[in-house]
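C-alpha cells please, single chain.
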Amino acid sequence: MDIQELRTIAQKTRDRQQKTRLRCCTAAGCQSSGALAVKAELEKAVQSAGLDEAIEVCSVGCLRFCGQGPLVATTEQAGLYAQVTPEQAPAIVAQLQGQATASLPQQLAADHPFFAHQMPIVLENSGQIDPERIEEYIAAGGYAPLHHALMEMSADEVVQEISASGLRGRGGGGYPTGLKWATVAKMPGEQKYVICNADEGDPGAFMDRSVLESDPHRVLEGMAIAGYAVGANHGYIYIRAEYPLAIAHLQKAISQAKRYGLMGAQIFGSPFDFKIDIRVGAGAFVCGEETALIASVEGKRGTPRPRPPYPAERGLWGCPTLINNVETYANIPAIIRQGSDWYASIGTEKSKGTKVFALTGKINNPGLIEVPMGTPLRRIVEEMGGGVPAGGTVKAIQTGGPSGGCIPAAALDTPVSYESLIELGTMMGSGGMIVMDTQTSMVDVAQFYMEFCRSESCGKCIPCRAGTVQLHELLNKFLRQEATPSDLEKLENLCHMVKESSLCGLGQSAPNPVLSTLRYFQNEYTALMSATARASELEVSGSPP
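Here you go.
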C-alpha cells in the first residue's frame, strides 16, 4: 500500500459517512446496560421507516459519559441521547425526520460540563468511529503518521520528536518516554521487542480497556512507530483475559492491518517489517510490573526480578525491550501528525499533554474524561463530575489505585500533574480517580487496598509477602476497635519498612493508601482505638477525661 491508496480509502469512507449516522456506543460499559438491544431496535426503526439509504446505524466505541448509558449520538444534533431503552428507538428515528414525539430519551447537550473542559487526544476517535472498521480509522487520519515516520523521518528523528514532546509514560511513574525509547534504540543486538502493557488492574480503572475497545488501530500504529524508532520488528500486547471485547477488537484490527499491508513485511514499501501478537494474562495484578509481565509473556510464572538489568537492556528472551502502556502508545500518532511543539504546548512545565481518567465513586457524572495536565482537581470533581449525589460533600479523592493514595478535600484546588500528586502522597498511576464522600471511612479504604495488595502479592520477597499480611491485620484491629496507640506507631513503621525493602513496585507502593490516610485522616484511626486505649492515652498525657 502507498499513501495514495491510503487517501483513496479515506475519501471513499468519508463519502459513505455523508449520510446521517446514529452512533450507538457498544463498548463494554454500555453493552452491560443493554446497548446491543438498543442498536438492534434502531436498525429496525430505520428499516421500517424506509430510511436505509439516508440513515446508518453503526457501532462505535466509548462515548465517555458511562454513567448515563446506553448512549446514542447523531451527526445531525450536538450532544447525546442518554439512558436509551430499546422502546425509545422509534422516537429517535422520528425526531431525525423532524417529527415531534413525547417519548424521546434524555438528551445531553454538547456543552454539558462533563464535556466542556475535555481535550480529546487519546480519545479523539472514541465514539466517533466504528472500531471494527479499519477504513474508518484511516478516514480519521489513521496510519498517515506511520507513513510519515517511515518515509520522511529517520528512526533517530522519531525518537527526538517524542523526546521533544515531553510525553511521559502514562502507566504509573511518569518516566520520560523519549528517554526510554532512546535507551532501547542505542542498545546493540539484531533482535529487539516492543511490548504494550494492557494489564490494567487497578480497582475502578477502565481507561486502557476503553481505548482498546474504541480505537484499537491507534495503539497498533503507536506500537509500529515505536518499533521503527527503536529498531524492533516484533511487538506483543499483554492484556488480561477479563477484557474479552478489547481482545476481540485487537485481534480483528491486527488481521485488518495485515490485509491492508499496514503490518507485516515492508510496510508502505519500506524496509521496515513489524508484526504484533497478543498474549492473554490470567489477571494477576503483579504482572503489571514490567519484569513480571515479561516472564509471563515468556510462558513463565509472572514474578518480578531484581533490576538492573532493566528491560531496555535485557528484557524479553534476553533482548532489549521497550515497554509502554496503552495510553502512552495512543499518544504517539497524534504527536507525529501534529508535532512535538504542539504537544509540548499542552499541560504544565514538567507534565505535558493530556491525561485520561476513569472518574468513579460518589460522583454524579461517572465516566471517562481526558483533560490537559494542570487541570485543577476541583474542576474535575465538582464541575465535570457534578459533585457528590444528593448534595453530599467530597471528603477525599483516591488516585493511583493500590499504588496511590487519598487526597483530602482541602487539596481540591491542586492542579493535576505528576509532581503535584506525589507531593500530596499519591501518584498519577494509570488514571483511576475515585471520589469519596463524608460517609466514607478512610480506614475502611486503607484496609480494602491492603487486602487487595495482600491477595495480589506474588510472595517472592518477604517484606511484601509478610508485611502486607501484618498491615492488613493491624488495620482490621483498628476496625474492630481493639487497637492501641502503640499499634498506630507500629502501623506507620511497618508501612515504611515494606515500602523501602520490597523487591518490586507492588510492595514498594502497597503502603501508600495507608500512609496517605494516616497523613490526612489520622483522627479516624484514633477514634477507632479501644475505649481502654484512649483512656490510657489520656492518663499518660495528663489530660482530663
